[in-house]
Amino acid sequence: MSVPDVAAGARPLARVHRGDLVESVHLGHVVVVGPDGAVRHAVGDPDVTVWPRSSLKPVQAVAMLGHGLDVAGADLALVCASHSGERAHLDVVRGLLAGAGLTEADLQNTPDWPLAPDAAWEWRAQGHGPASLTQNCSGKHAGMLATCRAAGWSTHDYLDPTHPLQQAVVAATVELTGAPVEHVTVDGCGAPLLSTTLVGLARAFGTVAAAARDGSAAGRVARAMATHPWHVGGTGRDVTAFMAAVPGLVAKDGADGVYAAGLPDGGAVALKVLDGSGRPRAVVLAAALALAGVDPALVAEAARTPVLGHGRPVGEVRATFGPDA
Q1: Which InterPro entries does the entry mention (predicted)?
Q2: What pLDDT does 2 receive?
Q3: Would you state the pLDDT for residue 1?
Q4: 239 close to 305: Cβ distance less than 8 angstroms
Q5: Which pLDDT value is given to residue 320?
Q6: CA 316, 85, 62 angle in degrees (round to 5)?
Q7: Which backbone phi and psi does 85 adopt, to 5 degrees?
Q8: pLDDT at 325
Q9: Which end of the chain is more exposed for a tag (fewer CB within 10 A), N or C?
Q10: What domains are there in the chain, each with its CATH number?
Q11: Which residues of the chain have pLDDT under 50?
């Protein structure tokens, strides 16, 4: 099997303006699909194979619900989250574990500090070090463990790629993306990470978002995320701001420059920043959403990415495509 080159076909997605000069340019790929899943717009290669990173969490949650996980609302949003580790996030994770008769000791995700600086300082001031509970993927892992309990599967090896839970995730990924899983590795949190195509990721989000009005697993995920955006991210997070700004939007950020979002009509977008930077993601997502039919005014504040000089704005990050380019 040949190894795909994510750099092939990449195009400029955003420019970093400082003063009256362009200081940096971020390359990558963007795809916008319509409600029918057909590609409506693309920058770069829409069929590029990527690691979706945490953008895959809503798909993983669909698999969990299909095999016995029985949670909703903020609890389910936390299963889909890369949370900031604020106190209310941690309380939900503890509740998910307790509801399955489990404890923090059962979590096998990589110990880490909370993402939010204030939460990290508070956690450290309490005498704690990096922990699985405070790592941003603890909600997903709590959901995985709870699913194993509901399905009667073992919990000690839930991260093994051959475990029934992880095989269920593969099946859900193939079904929702319409693309085969050709590569498997280990994500930062320790869970198996599956490859997909960028257009496949977009189609998965479109399917999930469009299901919000039905009782399917995908619909349950869509409702939980759209109605509890803070639990998907946290205070000051752009993923939370985007979902709060656009009714019915289902969005999920991912490490190394990945973002995906689905709209209630089934349209969707996905992007990959080639250098892995998070800096241009919000700006690029906003431009892609505008091409998908979202009023740019709704997401202008969520996308605002100033470039600072001596603590004040001296420029901004601007998308190279879209209605305002």
Answers
A1: Asparaginase_II (IPR010349)
A2: 67
A3: 55
A4: no
A5: 98
A6: 90
A7: 80, 20
A8: 79
A9: N
A10: 11-81+159-319 (3.40.710)
A11: none
Give the pair of three-digit tokens for residue 255: 């490490």
CA atoms within 13 A on the CB side of 58: 35
**Total-model pTM:** 0.97
Tokens representing 64 are 């969990």
In the numeric block, which tokens belong to residue 110? 């990589």
Note whether 209 and 201 are within 8 A (CB).
no
Type of residue at 196: T
Q: How many CB atoms lie within 10 A of CB 72?
A: 15
Distance CA 134, CA 107 (A): 11
Q: Quick one: three-class SS letters along the chain?
A: CCCCCCCCCCEEEEEEEECCEEEEEEEEEEEEECCCCCEEEEECCCCCEECCHHHHHHHHHHHHHCCCCCCCHHHHHHHCCCCCCCHHHHHHHHHHHHHCCCCHHHCCCCCECCCCHHHHHHHHHCCCCCECCCCCCHHHHHHHHHHHHHHCCCCCCCCCCCCHHHHHHHHHHHHHHCCCCCCEEECCCCCEEECEEHHHHHHHHHHHHHHHHCCCHHHHHHHHHHHCHHHHCCCCCHHHHHHHHCCCCEEEEECCCEEEEECCCCCEEEEEECCCCCCCHHHHHHHHHHHCCCCHHHHHHHHCCEEEECCEEEEEEEECCCCCC
Instruction: Give the whole-angstrom CA distance, residue 173 versus residue 218.
Output: 12
Predicted pLDDT of residue 259: 98
| Cross-strand bridge partners of residue 196 | 50
